[in-house]
Amino acid sequence: MARSTFGAGLADFVVRPSDGLWAVAPGATVTFWDAHDAGTQYTDLLDADGSPATAATADAYGMIPSLQGPDSITGMWADAGGASRAWISPRGAATGGGGGGGGGFTSLTRVVASATAPTDVRATATYVCDGVADQVQIQAAVDDARDHGGGVVQLTVGDYNLTAPVTFEGTDDVDVEVGISLWGQGAKATMLNAGSGLTSAIHLTKVVRVNFADFGVTISGATHGISSATTNGASSGHRSFWNSSFRNLQIYGPWDGSGTGYAMYLGSPFRSVFENIEIGGVGGGWHMFSEHADFNPGDLSVNRSFVDLSGDNKIAYRIDSPAGTMNQTNWTMCEAYSNGVGCTAVLVNGSHNRMWGNNLEQFITLIEVEAGEGNEFEYNYVTGEDGGVGNKSFVCGTDAWNNTFRAKKLNIHAGDTVMAVQDANLSAAAPNIFERICIEANTGSSTTYSKVASTVFRDITAFLDGGTIQAGLLQYPLSGANSPDTVASEHGLATWTTDPAGGGATATSVSGVMYLSKVKIVNRSTVVSAIHVTVTTAGAGLTSGQNRLGLYDSSGTLLATSADMTTDFGTTGFKTGAITPQTLAVGTYFVAILTNATTTQVVLATGASGNTTVNANLSGAARRFMNSGTAQTALPASVSLSGATTNVASRWAALS
Question: Are the beta carbons of 428 and 454 closer than 8 angstroms?
Fold first, then answer.
């Protein structure tokens, strides 16, 4: 086989440090070898004139001159006296790698071959691993790239075993940027296996800029997959990395519930992009946190991530602000699933973070904002832990305010009790908003909530597939906080004719006359089980079985009748007549009051006055207060509202 020609190429230059910078090395002597370390020197060379030579001398511009290698040799390791040798390929052939250091040849790409890579790949790699402590070769390539102003570290197919973290370190100066890329051949094809006891598999620091793509990482125990930390130096801007990208990565734990480390444990991340990050079998998914009071990290996006937790009491997505504020992160199409119990899907202590288009399944707590403001959550499908005790969907702490929660479907498992909203916000001026949430309450489930006066519920709907929902959760269209008026729910009532604080008048009942008082239901699927009135003068000579409270719908159909109220109407005070529970749609209803007395008529509390203005400009069934006009001993099955008699006394009534 003929000799191959080397040198005189675009990348065939010798460089060395000069006054802190890299410059060409004119006159440098370059020898050629058959191995990256040690090995045998090639001495059977021919110079450009065809004369025998054992080495080459760089010209006045640092270029390696044209030469011919030994017969049948298609690649050599060049040594110019630096810290390491570099691969040189013949002209017209593809470069097998880069590397080098000190006064040696360098390239933008450094190939690191795994111990399990194909033989021909290992033969042309810049660094070759032995499968024992492979971080040594990877770290050497990373450091060499950093020391030469940046570059690409290309990992081959195969497994890399790490006994210490691989560290990507910048310059600790935000104005002196070093970019290092770490590329694999695919998340399943190139795998970095972190040994036990490591803090992390990969660590970033000193405001480095990295581009990671197409490799996988395995972790166990308390080991994190990729971690970062700022040195908190003023020149670094208190950030660990920035202007970086992470794409097509896979980080897996042991899938046995024993892991406590996070796949992504990122202190002070800034202005970076994450895309297609697959996480499974780990103790924790993402944990982003601030580290210095003088800096608010964030300004980054995560597009398409899936976290599959293994074990109990784990967290899938965590944003934390122990110092400064972790803020302005954007999460798109990020999903999470829990294989254990007591797990939290999203835990936020930060501000102005947005999560949208995501799914969460099998978590005891779906989304909790411990503290922070302006966070926005818009999810596609969320469901709690099936059979879990203490399920909560959307939670806000005392210092969580001006946050917004939406979900296209909140599924409540059959038989489960779920607190859909738990809001403890102490900042009444900036309420948390829960809106456009569709609840699917399955058979035997119960959905409750806990709120403060400022909490805003709006446009919340439900499919009651055999489940029940606490009255008030489906309030429509706005929270009572948006009105200066006192609302019935503040008294523990579903609705009333009017605020009783505006009353003070009374009206004497006519024996046998059924009085009708209009009430409105503003919450979808409101369940009521009692009717209330207030007696100011007790009746005497009441006829047993002929004193009742009832509920009619807007068409005049009787929905429910209380038990006999004869004993109740024989004393004064707030009266409650239990009825068969009724699920009411939004609309108008009429409370019916019927008394029959022979000695003293029952006197009921009314609104502030009893004049014709209580039905001002209203007619027919639209009137608020009416009576049957004829004697009754029982509530009729239906009543003609348009034909009823106008009543001027606004008898007070309520439902609960």
Answer: yes
Return the structure tokens found at 156: 């081959």
* C-beta separation of 541 from 566 below 8 A: no
**Predicted model pTM:** 0.68
Nearest to 196 by CA among 159, 163, 160, 158: 163
CA distance 458 to 456: 6
> Which one-letter DSSP state was computed for residue 122?
H
Q: How many Å apart are CA 24 and CA 18, to the nearest integer?
A: 9
Question: pLDDT for 370-385, tens place per residue?
Answer: 999 999 999 999 999 9
Strands (E), 413-480: 417-423, 433-441, 446-450, 456-458, 461-464, 468-469
Which tokens go with 489?
Answer: 């729910």
Question: On the CB side of 157, how many CA atoms lie within 13 Å of its CA?
Answer: 7
Cα(355)–Cα(336) distance, rounded to whole angstroms? 12
What radius of gyration do the chain's Cα atoms show? 38
CA–CA dist 384, 364 (Å, integer):
6
Q: Are 375 and 351 a contacting pair, CB within 8 Å?
A: yes
What b/e string do you get for 6-32 counting C-beta neighbours within 10 Å, with b at 16 or more?
bbebebbbbbbeeeeeeebbeebebbb
Task: Give the pLDDT confidence of 426-458 residue by residue, as tens digits.
Answer: 998 899 999 999 999 999 999 999 999 889 998
d(CA 433, CA 378): 12
- pLDDT recorded at residue 94: 40
Residue with tokens 């795998």: 191
Gap between the Cα atoms of 74 and 6, Å rounded: 9
Among the listed residues 522, 525, 497, the one whose alpha carbon sits nearest the alpha carbon of residue 608:
497
Cis preceding linkage at 118, omega within 30: no
Hey, what amino acid is at 503? G
Read off the tokens for 272: 């970076």
Nearest to 112 by CA among 141, 74, 145: 141
DSSP letter, residue 104: S
Q: Which bin fits 522, alpha (ψ -120 to 50), beta or left (φ > 0)?
A: alpha
Cα gap 195→197, rounded to integer Å? 7
Alpha carbons 558 and 548: distance in angstroms, whole number: 13
Task: Considering only the C-alpha atoms of the chain, give the largest distance between any 2 of them, rounded to a whole number of Å.
Answer: 138
Nearest partner of 317 among 269, 281, 396, 263, judged by Cα? 263
